[in-house]
Task: structure prediction
Amino acid sequence: MNLKELYQEIILDHGKNPRNLRKTENFNKDAKGHNPLCGDKVHIYLKINENKKIEDISFEGQGCAISMASASIMTDLVKGKEEFEVKEIVSDFLDMIKEKDKLNNKILHDDDKTKLMCLSGVKQYPMRVKCATLSWHTLTSAINNSQEEINTESN
Amino acid sequence: MNIIDIKKEFPIFNNKVQNNDLVYLDSANSSQKPLVVIDRIYDFYTKEFSNVGRSVHYLAVAATNLYENTRSSVQKYINAKEKDEIVFTKGATEAINLVASSFGHKYLKEGDEVLITELEHHSNYVPWHYLRKSIGIKIEFAEINQEGEVTIDEIKKKITPKTKIIALTHLSNVTGAILPIKEITQLAHSKGIPVLVDGCQSAPHMKLDMQDLDCDFYAISCHKMYGPTGLGILYAKKKWLEDLPPYQGGGGMINWVKKDDIGYGDLPNKYEAGTMATAQVIAFNESIKFIKKIGIENIAKHEEELIKYGEEILKKNNSVKLIGNPKKRGAVLSFTIDGIHPHDIATILDEDGVAIRAGHHCCQVLHDKLDLTASARASVGVYNTTEDFDKLNLSINKCKKIFNLK
Result:
C-alpha cells in the first residue's frame, strides 16, 4: 500500500478545489448518486446539444478527497465530448479501476489519460473504489436519462 | 488492574496488522475477543456440541444446561428479577425489532406516538418506521442540546397523551452522551408509558441494574461486550413477555400444535424460535466471567481516564473538532478535521495500524442535525491505553501533513 500513490498532488488539488462544482443553468439531463455506507452524495447536471455533444457538465455534492477529485477530473475530461465518446471513456475508466493496468480508449489524449490514471491508486484500497466510481456511474445514469438514483450498494 | 496483562488475553494483539501493531479504536463498532471466549466456542464444537432443549441424550442435556447457565449469568450480571426475563436474540437489532413488532402490533394504532431521540442508531429507528408505514403511527424525536445530550426536560416536553412508548439509547455511539434513563423511566411510568432502552453502547462500559433502572425493555449487543457475533439479549419485564405475542414462529417456541390452533411455549422459549446461536450463547458466559474478573467498575474507571486523556489530546490538536461535549462522555470520541473527509482520515490512519470508524455510524438523523455527512470516531475497550491515543494523534498529524493543513 502506498498513501502517496493514493493521495497524489493532483487528487488533493481537485479534492480541495473541485472543478465544475456548481449547477449548470438550463441543464437537460441529470442524475443523483449516493453511497449509503458513508453518506456521500453527488448530483450531476448535463447540458447536451442537438448533436449529442456535452456542452456543459457540472456537479454538486459532498464527499471524500477521492470522490470529489474523481468527479472533478471526470467533468473536466468529458466536457465537449459526444455522448458515445463519453460512454466509452466511462466504461474504459471503470475497467481500469476494476482490473486493467491502463486506459485503452482512443478518445482521450495521453496527458488526460495520465491525469485519470492518478486515480488508479484506489485499486489498492478496495473499500475506497466506490468513492472513485460513484460519479462515473452517476454520469452514465444521467446520459441514459434513467431517472435512477445510483446507489453504490445496490449493484 | 494491569492493562498490559489484560491485553495479552486478546490474541488479535499478538499479530501485526499490515506490519503495524494494532491500535484498535473501534470497539463501539465491535470489541475484540479474549482467548477464553474463542476457546469456549472451539471446545463446545469439538467436545460438547448438541442442539439444546430438544433431545434427551447426554450431550443434548449438557448443552441445554450450559445454554441456560448463560441465561442465569446474564440475569445476575444485569440484576434482572427473574431468569425468564432474559431472551436471546441474534443481536440487539433483533431485540428492538422484537419489541417494536410484538408491542407495536398489540398496542399501537394509527396516530399513536413513539418517542425516540435524535441520537438513535438506525436499529432503534427503522423498526419503528415499519410501524409508521404499516399502522400509521407517528415517530417523535427528542432533540439534542448544544452538547449533544438529550435531557429529561426535552423528553418531558415531547411526551403527549398519544405517546405510547419511549425508545432511546443509554449511551450515544456518536456524541458519547449518557442519558438519565432512571429518571426518564420514572417520568414515563408516572404517565403509564413503557420505556425501551438501547443498551448497545452502555452495556460494555457500565454497571447495569435492571431493577434499579426499572425500564421495561433493554437491548444488549454481545459482540460489543467481548462476546461472539450473532448474539444479542433482550431484557424485558416478565409482565411484558407474558403479555406480548411471540415475534417469530417455529420449533422450540410452541407448547402444542393442532391443525386448527397452536399454543405457545412458556417463557422464555416463546421468543426463541428455531435453533438458537448455541455456541455463541455458551461462549458469552465466558465474556461475562471475563468482565467480572476485572470488575466492570474498574473497566469503567480505566475507560473514563482514557476518554479524558483522548479528549485533552485531541482538543489541543488544531483543526480537530470534537462532536458533542456531554457532561460525562461515554467510551466514544467522535471528531472531524476541517478540510479532510473522515474516510480519508480513516484510510491514512489505517496505514499506521490505527483502526477507527468513519461514516455516519448508522446515525444519519444525528449527522443531518449536526450538518455533517460523516464523522470519524475513536472508541475504547478495556485493552486500550493512553499510548493508543498518542498514536492516534500522531497519525492525525500525518493526515494534516498529507493534506497540507497546519
Q: What stands out?
A: Chain A has one domain: 3-146.
